[in-house]
Amino acid sequence: MSEGIDEADRPQVLEGTGTDLFSKFDPLIEMRRSLLATGQEDPFSLVMERVVSPTVAVCNGRETILLGTYNYMGMTFDPDVIEAGKQALDDYGAGTTGSRVLNGTYAGHKAVEAALCEFYGMDHAMVFSTGYQANLGIISTIAGKGDYIVLDIDSHASIWDGCKLGDAEIVPFKHNDIEAMEKRLKRIPAGAGKLVILEGVYSMLGDIAPLKEMVRVARENGAMVLVDEAHSMGFIGANGRGVAEDQGCLDDVDFVIGTFSKSVGTVGGFCVSNHPKFEIMRLVCRPYVFTASLPPSVVATAATSIRKLMHGSNKRAHLWENSKVLHQGLRDAGFQLGTETPQSAIIAVIMPDLEKGAAMWEALLKEGLYVNLARPPATPANMTLLRCSLCAEHSAEQVQTIIGIFKRAGTKVGIIG
Amino acid sequence: MNREDTAAKIAALIEPFNKKGVAITDATTFAGDLEFDSLTVMDFVAEIEDAFDIIISMNAQAEIETYGQLVDAVVRLQG
């Protein structure tokens, strides 16, 4: 027997104690180990075994009210949306197996882009396979080496990754600080390209941006403006176009980024714009070109959902009511919240630390309520948050049940007196 | 502003961020010796930017590990 074969049959056993490329994850592995060693249910391995409706699922064996899904308008189980998806599966098959610029553009992809143009009242719409890719693709393609990106420090990971991919000079400013943004814009060397990136709703604390003032300042300083409205579509603004519409400055925004995985109720991302040269993006934007397009059933459900959201004012009113009642109820119960007043459909409950936050998360789950546990580094100022996102399909009764669960769990864990 | 004056101005600005009273030399590192986390870095960079009316982009920050490198960068960025 040759030595080579002998070695292949008995490979050297690696203990995992040495230093290799995974060593950088050791602090996180240890944090997770010590958290779970206390008997804590793992907040990041939850399985939804059965989904009953947009607001109820069976999680880890328990029937659970869902309060952390971003399914703001409850479109996931809309009968018309589901029917459109089934029909597209029958007519076009399970997938496109191709890029949008090769064999992956079907009638459904053009139809959903037409629905987006109508929804936003804009000339151009470009659909990506996820919201993450929409930010990654648009930002990295329009702002390259030598250009400057001025962005809010609390921007979403997909925005940061888009900045990094594009190789522009990255200049962050303090969250929602108009003066800090303006100072940085004025210091950019003359002649350099400038892009300001803002979000309508910031998803961690659920607060909104003073877009009207910020967009005005950005334009006065010669910058193009991109606004991520992922968490406002379908809900905020007279036509559900987002915070920029609500504040009357949508016409001054060059690019709106959005997603199908929140109010629209499926998956996918997009950018809408009035820029006359926008269509060239389809040829130069790598995260658009070098990936497979969305399945026909997904674009069919998205198009149907978007068209229904245009007439969703009653649902919007009910969602606002839910948000206001929950915010007031949690405040009255003594919880510390991310915003003084309800500004969106996200209500963030601030926890004293990760251990207490994880214990509270588990206590809520055992009472039959699911929320998101958000922890550093995804959170601003290293906070641990229990992030609640409401749905237009939550009944007034469910909202009262939720407040009751929070009170019992909060008392048990010692978050409130 | 020359290196000496720039260094003196930065020395005054860093004081409130030097919580453990570390003796600072050009070789002092921000992450290691001064234990700056990402939030502290953001606040400190904003102070320096405003004091000198410059931009230290995140790309430039990635190249700055020591106090001496920061002083050099600020001298250069002032043009």
Structure description:
The complex is a heterodimer of chains A (417) and B (79). With 417 residues, chain A is α/β, with parallel strands linked by helices. Chain A contains 15 helices and 16 strands. The termini of chain A are far apart. Chain B has one domain (3-77): Orthogonal Bundle (Non-ribosomal Peptide Synthetase Peptidyl Carrier Protein, Chain A), CATH 1.10.1200. Chain B contains four helices and no strands. Chain B has helices at 3-14, 38-52, 58-61, 67-77. The longest helix of chain B has 15 residues, at 38-52. Chain B is globular and about 30 Å long. The relative contact order of chain B is 0.21. Chain A binds chain B through residues 148, 153, 169-174, 180, 183-184, 187-188, 377, 381-382, and chain B through 37-39, 42, 46, 49-50, 53-55, 57-60.
Specify the overall morphology of chain B.
globular
Looking at how many chains there are and whether they match, the oligomeric state comes to: heterodimer
Question: Low-confidence runs of chain A (pLDDT<50, min 5 residues)?
Answer: 1-7
CATH fold type of chain B: Non-ribosomal Peptide Synthetase Peptidyl Carrier Protein, Chain A
Named CATH architecture of chain B: Orthogonal Bundle
| Beta-strand residue percentage of chain B | under 5%
Major β-sheet profile of chain A: 7 strands, mixed
Largest sheet of chain B: none
The CATH architecture of the largest domain in chain A:
3-Layer(aba) Sandwich
The percent range for strand residues of chain A is 15-25%
Look up the CATH topology of the largest domain in chain A.
Aspartate Aminotransferase, domain 2
Mean pLDDT of chain A: 94
How many structural domains are formed by the residues of chain B?
1
Structure, briefly:
The complex is a heterodimer of chains A (417) and B (79). In chain A, 40% of the residues lie in helices and 17% in strands.
